[in-house]
Design goal:
The complex is a heterodimer. Chain A is mostly beta strands. In chain A, 0% of the residues lie in helices and 48% in strands. By secondary structure, chain B is an all-beta fold. In chain B, strands 2, 4, 5, 9, 10 and 11 form a six-stranded mixed sheet that branches. In chain B, strands 1-3-8-7-6 form a five-stranded antiparallel sheet, with no helix packed on it. Classes of the chains: A mainly beta, B mainly beta.
């Protein structure tokens, strides 16, 4: 089955620690995205990558870092510099030619990060 | 500056009736619009989209209407079912300039009562 997987589902971290969230897709999509969702805030773009070894900052990139060494994988590191890291993190990939048409993004199940 | 606005945080309807969710946008460069449905603690799922060259797109119980002059779109769900209870996000993108990004509204929580 093709899809996007994120692990773990729930993650706890102590203040001051870096943590890496995993995102893997086997849909052969070129573009991948990271969002965070906070209550009442909708989805805000953290980073995105259109091709391997290339990525761009989104609207709220401060305190985060990413890498894109493989087409299938786009891990997100939440660093200790992120002031408010507790949130629900969503990974997505883009399907240019699918049912939704251009620019349609498909999402993974999300990771809930809680900083203690 | 919120470019995509969903002004109703919540909506409650009876099963079998029509649900109408609204979305307004300010950026005239937006030319592609999508609706996503999201259950708690899950990722959003794609519902339906519409290009700016159309004013209506249907998919089963879901229809999206686009009014470009008013910069307004709406999602109609007919008939509404209890399983439709979720948060619905409107999103938009602009193809000019090679933008790869979607801009999301803050969502509307739909509750369909049996």
């Amino acid at each position: 089955d093709g899809g996007i997987t994120q692990s773990p589902k729930y993650l706890f971290r102590k203040e001051g620690q870096n943590v890496t969230l995993s995102c893997e897709q086997n849909l052969n999509h070129d573009a991948m995205y990271w969002y965070r969702q906070d209550p009442g805030q909708g989805l805000r773009l953290i980073y995105y990558s259109q091709i391997v070894n290339d990525f761009q900052k989104g609207d709220i990139a401060e305190g985060y870092s990413v890498s894109r060494e493989k087409k299938e994988s786009f891990p997100l590191t939440v660093t200790s510099a992120q002031k408010n890291p507790t949130a629900f993190y969503l990974c997505a990939s883009r399907d240019y030619w699918g049912r939704g048409g251009k620019d349609t993004q498909y999402f993974g199940p999300g990771t809930r990060l809680t900083v203690l | 500056d919120q470019q995509v606005k969903q002004n109703s945080p919540s909506l409650s309807v009876q099963e079998g009736r029509i649900s109408i969710l609204n979305c307004d946008y300010t950026n005239s460069m937006f030319d592609y619009f999508l609706w996503y449905k999201k259950y708690p603690a899950e990722g959003p799922t794609f519902l339906i989209s519409i290009s700016s060259i159309k004013d209506k797109n249907e998919d089963g119980r879901f229809t999206v209407f686009l009014n470009k002059s008013a910069k307004h779109l709406s999602l109609h769900i007919v008939p509404s079912q209890p399983g439709d209870s979720a948060v619905y996000f409107c999103a938009a993108s602009a193809s000019q300039g090679g933008s790869e990004k979607l801009v999301f509204g803050k969502g509307t929580k739909l509750t369909v009562n049996p």
